[in-house]
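Most newcomers find our protein records easier to grasp once they have seen one. A learned vocabulary of local backbone shapes supplies the integers on the structure line. Here is such a record, shown just as it appears in the course material:
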Amino acid sequence: MVFNPVLVASHVARPPWYQDTAKYAHCNVPIAIRQLATTLIPYFLLLALMIRMVKSSLSYWFVLPLAVVAAALFVRIFIIFHDCTHGSFLPSPRWNTRVGFFCGILTFTAFYDWRRSHAGHHITVGDLDRRGMGDITTMTVQEYLSAGPLQRLAYRLYRSPPVMFGIGPAYYFLLRNRWPGKGAHRQDIHSVVITDLALLALAALALLTIGWRTYLLVQLPVLLLAATFGVWLFYIQHQFEGVYWERHEAWDPWKAALEGASYYRLPAILQWLSGNIGFHHVHHARPGIPNYNLQRCYDEVPVLKKVHPVTVIGSLRSIHCNLWDEERRQLVSFRSLKGRAPRGR
């Protein structure tokens, strides 16, 4: 399943630069295999070392730094999984599915169910009238001002950093991913069941070999750290100063790609660990480009370089991008609403 934005808004003509990205939407098997090897082998070795350290009763403070590195590799495994859902990691659909299923089990995510919801995200990003498909819930200023006290409180809690980057990621990967999403088809449901059974089998094997305590002390911090980092990456990809949102009748998929998805400029090591996903505007412009070609596409297609980058320091301001102000056409903070009332009052 490869998303084509032209099918979503056929009334909007393809921009001239779109064809320039076509040559990067090709898989490279040696590079894909190398990515799998340099990601999975270190990940499994780190888990084995952590298990040995815990079993040896070594201070857990020596184990936790390894959990941070393993969590970073966990994120990279998820990026490979993500490419497989787009059918862009390997040239064979069958092998994309096989590798995707395997990486999905490692990252506690069902392949087909997540692929469907993520495709929904791609065809609705930046569209104010089609929010809620695989994205961060975002209310407009008027929706928030018109909401009741409990709804406002719930939204503020949801948008608070402890929930958004703490409780939320843990809930999503440990619990939410354990059942099919809204609109799931039979294939999606089957993928959730298979993934859950595989995770139960791995947990049972761990209980029989290393014990539940060791398993939790090793797997849980890796999962939770990776989930938090992954949710932060997803958040900053579409919640940043200058982001594009528009009502459906005026929504432009090409603007949504270049202006509704960020270019998150990361240090080299973080760019590698996050599988170049910082070039998110390139990914949304043509989702069929594998992660290992995103940098080259960005470097060689001039229009992609015109997108203003979000820096690591600058991205911290996005925590306060809580609501979409349709009048000012920008994300604003809760604090900016002081003294404002909904229209018509």
